[in-house]
Amino acid sequence: MKIVVCIKQVPDTAGGVQFNPDGTLNRAAMLAIMNPDDKAGLEAALRLKDQYGAEVTVLTMGLPKADDILREAMAMGADKAILVTDRVLGGADTWATSSTIAAALKNLEYDLVITGRQAIDGDTAQVGPQIAEHLQLPVISYAADIKLEGDSVIVKRQYEDRHHMLKVKLPCLITALSELNEPRYMTPGGIFDAYNEKEVTVWGRPDLKELDDANMGLAGSPTKIAKASDKVRKGAGEKIAPDTPDEGVSYIIGKLTEKHVI
Amino acid sequence: MDFSLDKKHELARTLFREFAENEAKPLAQETDETEVFPRQTVEKMAKAGFLGIPVPKEYGGQGCDPLTYVMCVEELSKVCGTTGVIVSAHTSLCIDPIMTYGTEEQKQKYVPKLASGEWLGAFALTEPGAGTDAQGAQTRAVKDGDSWILNGSKCFITNGKEANVYIVIAVTQVDVDPKGRKKKKFSAFIVEKGTPGFSFGTKEKKMGIRGSSTYELIFEDCKIPGDALLGPEGKGFPIAMHTLDGGRIGIAAQALGIAEGALDRCIEYTKERKQFGRSIAAQQNTQFKIADMATRIEAAQLLVYKAAKAKETQKVYSVEAAKAKLFAAETAMAVTTEVVQLFGGYGYIREYDVERMMRDAKITEIYEGTSEVQRMVISGALLK
Questions:
Q1: Which of A50, A65, A70, A192 to mutate to test the interface with B (most CBs of B within 10 A)?
Q2: Is the dihedral of CA B123, B359, B211, B79 positive or negative?
Q3: How far is residue B328's CA from residue B303's CA, in Å, rounded to a whole number?
Q4: A15 touches chain B (CB under 8 A)
Q5: What are the counts of helices (DSSP H) followed by strands (DSSP E) for chain A?
Q6: Is B175 helix (H, G, I), strand (E, B) or coil?
Q7: Minimal Cβ distance to A187: which of B6, B18, B62
Q8: B72 to chain A: which residues are within 8 Å by CB?
Q9: What is the least distance, in Å, from the CA of A165 to any CA of chain B?
Q10: Can B330 be counted among the known catalytic residues?
Q11: Which helix (H) or strand (E) holds B23?
């Protein structure tokens, strides 16, 4: 079984967020980590590898320094790593990113593609499902549990108040929640192997034969950023337990009136 | 000369720091308070490969260098001195002598289990009457056919009751010179827990590193097989001294970590704590002390990393190890004492972990060779 896990290097929000004048993130100036949902996706792939045997490839698009998270993924147990990097791919929105990653995936053999649900920088949750669309794959988002059964996967899809159990034939694409699992630690020996023995394959624009120039980089991105800001911390909010729905509605109407919302 | 760390060592530091913060730090105060060995953390370290870092892969280890191991002990000790010394004693004092002096059979039998963390290791040299004067040890091993019979006791043994394998140094021969003076010859043995005649005595109640299992070991007609002899018969003392050279680098890393952890806490606290209308970090007295501590800690780190590099590249590294341990241990004591002072009354309260760090620091000036012994080693090399 061949699994490709798409991962992204994101700013470590604990270290502060910085923007370029055009509103895009100044990634070079920030401390960077592997996106938490993607790490959970990688852990899910590694558990499938431990349980059933699989070859796990990690794939990322980003700056050359995204090499760091690919090495980290290999230190956790991924077998191969591919970095898609090229100046012409920079400034991509979700459409251009998913088009580029889908083109990279067309160079690979896979039974299962796993992405994180969303990245902590953009928070769109669009790239995973878009990749599936480009590749004509079934997509199961918000995976909280993944099991393999013959040529299918059985996935628990988590919603806020319920979950669905889905059985889907491979190949397919799954987007993972960070709640899916607790990712394993790298091992010291894994780190040494990732740097001393393993290679990161680097692909530039010329390696992406299936990618249309119109769908890549800043120019191929239909999204225009009007304004970007760091996360604003919300308060804990207020929880009430009304006895009847009417009582709850009255309370909410009262609060909205009090705040001059209505 | 390049003082920067390469990417793999930087990533290893990230790993050790994450593990220390997530797994060891939350238990550090409780471990100190209850004096209970942190078995759960040890199991997690085993799973993460921390118990066989410098061991070659063919023996089940991680295949890393001594510097990586030293960084692991340093990062663990930043948050919990107990956790740091468990790794240090296991790796430097038990696995290392088996790897250095063991036969292929001994390595195959013990190292994979130790490096995977399935077994924990310990080292037994000190006796009630033989501390710095290790030659005064009385524990004897007498040949009995193909076996050896051990009699005597060892004290202050780190990982004491928790270990599965012990390197035990015992007298195997006493020569008398023409003037009638007795000269002991020692040998080293690998002794497994559960061997009949091997039992545990007192559990020591300590000032610091209180979660570390420090026990007396008792040998009463303890019969061990002939192939338990580690290295040549009669060479136990040089084996022990060479083992301690490596151990001292581990303890130097522990001391370094304790000092770094205390400084980290100090910086956080002095920025928050207000007196006379401003943070105490805004007072020049605090600023100068923090500058001095940071400078001293970096000097200690350079000595410790240099000693780790010497262990990798040189056969003999006694002086490098002694300098690193001497300076790092005295730095740990000086820094933690200063940090407690800057915390004022809160520094003296158990709830604030700098109090624990100060108690943990003291042992680094004592065990695996006191600071006085380190000075003897350093000056001995210069004045010979």
A1: A192
A2: negative
A3: 8
A4: no
A5: 6, 11
A6: strand
A7: B62
A8: 188
A9: 32
A10: no
A11: none
Contact B62 A195 (CB under 8 A): no
Q: What is the pLDDT of residues B96-142, one digit of tens each?
A: 999 999 999 999 999 999 999 999 999 999 999 898 888 889 999 99
Nearest residue of chain B to residue A194 (CA atoms) = B8
Residue B253 CB coordination number (10 Å): 35
The one-letter amino acid code at B311 reads K
Q: Please count the CA atoms within 13 angstroms of the CA of A222 that sit on its side-chain side.
A: 5
Which token pair is B211? 């979660």
* ipTM score: 0.93
* pLDDT, tens digit, 9 for 90 and up, residues A25-42: 776 777 788 998 899 999
Look at chain B and count its residues. Answer: 384
In this prediction, residue A222 carries a pLDDT of 87
Q: What DSSP state is assigned to residue B353?
A: T
Place of tokens 């949750």: A125
Tokens of A114: 């796993």
For A194, the token pair is 């990732």
Positions in chain B short of pLDDT 50: none
A79: Cα separation from own chain's centroid: 19
Q: pLDDT tens digit string along B323-350?
A: 999 999 999 999 999 999 999 999 999 9
Q: Which residues pair with A169 in a beta bridge?
A: A152
